[in-house]
Fold:
Amino acid sequence: MKKLKLVSLAIAMACATPSFAGGLLTNTNQHVAFNRMMSREASIGIDGVYYNPAGVVFMGEGHHLAINWQLAYQTRSIENDYALFTNNVNNPITPRTFKGEAFAPVIPSFQYAYNKGRWSLQASFALTGGGGKCTFDNGLGSFEKIVAETAMAACGLARTVDNVLGNTLGQPGMQMFTTDQAFGQKGEYSYNSYMHGRQYYYGLSVGAAYKFSDNFSAFAGVRGVYASTNYYGYVENIKVGNMPLYKVLDPNKENAANIELSCDQSGIGFTPIIGVDFKTGKWNFSAKYEFKTRIRLKNKSVNQAPSISALPDNLSRQMVGTLTQVFTNKGMTPEKAQAAAANTTQAVLTNGDVVKTMAGLKTQFDTELEQAIGEYEDGKKIAGDIPAYLALGVGYSPVNAVRVNVGFHWFDDKHATSYNNRQEKLKRGTLEYNAGIEVDVNKKITLSTGWQNTNYGLPDENLDTPASKRYMDDKSFVVGSNSVAFGGVYHINKKMDLNVAYFHTFYQHKKTSEKVLLSAAEKNNYSSDYTRNNNVFAVGLDINF
Structure:
């Protein structure tokens, strides 16, 4: 039972919906043109309101509007191998795969620009981070790992109490809590869990670009970000052996051992943005820098967690009741049997070994509770910065009908503050490289394709890396990837273009393993294999008027 409440942390963290393209907390797929080409940093078009805002001023005069819709579906798969999983009476298999699904049926975005003379006034709305709900119908491996270790700890406590009880009564080997009808001795367990969460970072940007010459322009603007998240999950019906856990915490409440998390978070931040664009002949060069967005998320929570404080009293009541019957069966009067049972129970629960076990259990339990769910306490403010972001692009048009782009992204994740400064575990920020090409097949149709590589600055971790130093876990993980895209544009008329696109992300596998010391004599390894799968469909309409 000493680690039971750590499950609450897993519920909260694992629900965070991933960004579908971009850094750790940044969506870069904000226009369909990206979804069909991947590299848009050096392009001149209405999508440049996000990708190349300085270059938008080189579009024609008048109003320009883009309306975009995306559908994204992502799965996360974690294969865990842990010896204690074989104690799960409902699924005694290891390794085991845990899968979560993130589905975002509607990801909208809008870009607008008004060009007049040397000026371009711009605005956009998009989901700069998150964008859907992630669901784990059967929880995570970290959930089960904790329940499995809880079962072993409960059996260990039961053995300690029974050993002291047997010695006190002069009946070595006596069983009360280690019988098959109670906790047993094998560490067998069962439980139910579920979780889901949503994460939306809404971004509204305004800014202006100025054309200093026919070749050079600059942009300055700001984005307001409103973050809204919700996490809900539970771990319930925990049973060790044949003993429902609630019976030793509060036998009058069947939900006494249940864990439930219901937390809403919200916060506001602002992102200053600057950019430049330089045109020369068939070449175009661009750069954009978004400063770090400082966000503090405020919690509104209604959480439920069991308390271990009542464990000694409940054990005492169970022992007195059972021993009273034992002494009565031996011929004692009910009064003497109850008195003897109370005295024996008092002797057992004040025994040095039992007191030491109880005290250590409660201290570690309370400490880990704070580490686990302290982030989601009601009224607390949590750091959730969006990292600074640098984008560079080069475009080349060998002939008018062909445009080739390459781009580079750097996300300064290591200096974006998160809870407990988790970002400090990273080696560096995220690096992305992309390339794309589009070809005008005729006056009506343009086809395009592209590629992007994402490489996170994950730390090196091995068996000896302590849990407190680890970055990768199933509660919040990322893995490197390659994305490919294709799509096209149908030029409806001189004022309207219809974009359609699809991109798929091929994720790498990241394997980790850690030592688990259950006791001085029992050591195990807990291994994980992380990966994802991602599909995005998109349709958009660009209008000039």
Q: What stands out?
A: The CA atoms of residues 12 and 231 lie 6 Å apart. Helices lie at 7-14, 32-37, 48-51, 141-169, 311-329, 334-349, 352-373. The chain is about 20% helix and 45% strand.
